Every structure is written in C-alpha cells, then in structure tokens.
Amino acid sequence: MQQRSWLFVPGDSEKKLGKAADTGADVIIVDLEDSVAIANKNQARQLACAWFARQRHVAPFGRWVRINALDSQMWRDDLAAVMPGAPDGIMLPKSAGPESIQTLAAELYELEGRCGIASGSTRILALVSETAEAAITIPSYATASLPRLHGLVWGGEDLSAAIGAARKYDAAGRWTDAFRYVRVQTLLTAHAKGVLPLDTLHADFADLEGLKRLAEEARADGFGGMLAIHPAQVPVINAAFTPSEEELVHARAVIAAFAAQPNAGTLQIDGKMIDRPHLVLAKRLLGITD
Prior knowledge:
Blueprint: E1 5-10, H1 14-20, E2 27-31, H2 41-55, E3 62-66, H3 75-82, E4 89-92, H4 98-115, E5 123-127, H5 132-135, E6 149-153, H6 157-163, H7 177-193, E7 196-199, H8 208-221, E8 225-228, H9 234-240, H10 245-260, E9 266-269, E10 272-275, H11 276-285
Parallel strand pairs: 1-2, 1-8, 2-3, 3-4, 4-5, 5-6, 6-7, 7-8
Antiparallel strand pairs: 9-10
Helix pairs in contact: 10-11
C-alpha cells in the first residue's frame, strides 16, 4: 500500500467521513484532536469508531486516527472508543520523546487484547516537533526500542507558538532556520530508525502551485509522503511522490547495468558515471529489497 498522501478528516463530520474514501488519499487520518471542539469529542469518537468498522475489510487505503495528546486527559477515552474499530494506526500529537511512544504502546497492548486485535499490529506515527523540548529529542527516537513506530512527522504551527516565532518562512518562501532544523532532524532520524519520514502539511490549501513545489522538494529530499488538510491537495501530493516513467526507465537501466557487471564499482549510462549509491537509489525507487 502506498503512503504518499495522509489526509486529515475531522472526526465529528459525518459528511466528510462519508466522502473520505473517494478522495484518493493513500491514508485517511480521522482527527479527534485539533479539528474537533471539546463539546464534540464524544460524538467524534462514536463516528470514528463506526467509520473504522465499516472500512475495516474493504478500504484500499490506510485507516489512522489522531488522538488527543498524552497530557490532555482525553487520549485514553479516544483509544477506548476507537480501538473496537481496529484502526491501522494511531497518530500521536505532541510526542515528547520515545517515552511518549512507549506509554501509548502499553495502552495499545491492553486494548488490542480486549478488542480481539492481533497484538502489536496497531502502529504509531509520532508528531515530534510541537514544543521546543520535543524538537530537541528527535534524534533519541533512532536508538530507542519502539517496535510499533511506523513513522515520524513534523509540524510548524504549534512550534512557532511555543518559541514565539513571528514567521516560519523567509522572504524567498523557505523555512527559517529553526523549522528547517526540525525538518532535517525528522528526516534523518526516520531514515536512521528505518521508519517512514513524512513532511508537514501546507496550510494554504488553495495554493496548489506552492504545494506542488513543496511536495516535489520533499520527495527529492528523501521524504516518503506528506500530510494534507484538504482533498484538493491529495492529487498534487500523489503526483509529486509518484516516480515518472523516465525515472523508472533509468532505474531499471541502472539495475540492469550492475546485474551485467556485478563486480563493477562504477559504470557509465548515457555518458554519465554511476556508482553503487545510484544502484541503491534505483532499487529504492522500484521497491526492491535485497
């Protein structure tokens, strides 16, 4: 299953949940956190559980839920309500470090047993950058024992408030240093851990040209997918994270060249030098694992 586009859908909107399956998103994240007012939390939980149950055996996309943060006193109620629907994974906001993942994992273990779900099958996606303290713990995920960890994702909105940043972008529209630092740490740590690195969302959902640039840059930088907050963003993200036919042809040529000369360190294709790192990239592009 591809994991290019991760679309948030408010858990308290029956209408939007009803349309989620038709958005083309690779993963739907039913949101119980920021997009749901306190007064609507219980309704959102009930709608989310029913949606997960309906989609459990038919959905061709990932079914995830963003619960409330561990310091909110609401997250256990979120899990108790939605786990009977057997979501594929839990997005944990405001993760403060590996200990947050371990706390959530322990609760999931109990609920899986209670709900008849295979032990360890519910994965965790950690949102790792919403406070300054959380942001500086990002490298620690690489060496911690976190068997449920599926990926790392970062975000700038809460962090900007936490550090009092009046801007997130410079005059050229690029991330400023603090946010670029967090982005790079998320990317490198995810790869070091062998989990999925996800880039943050583009808040201006009407700016599809800007999204196209950001998504293409994210893929080129090594991210495996990107968050989305509006269905219109999904096809743009999917296109950006889908290899072109030209890329596929080149990757196959690289693999064929090294297969023909397995002892070679460097080769030439179309007048350009290639070496073993090119072979690694080609196999990654084609989903080939040794």
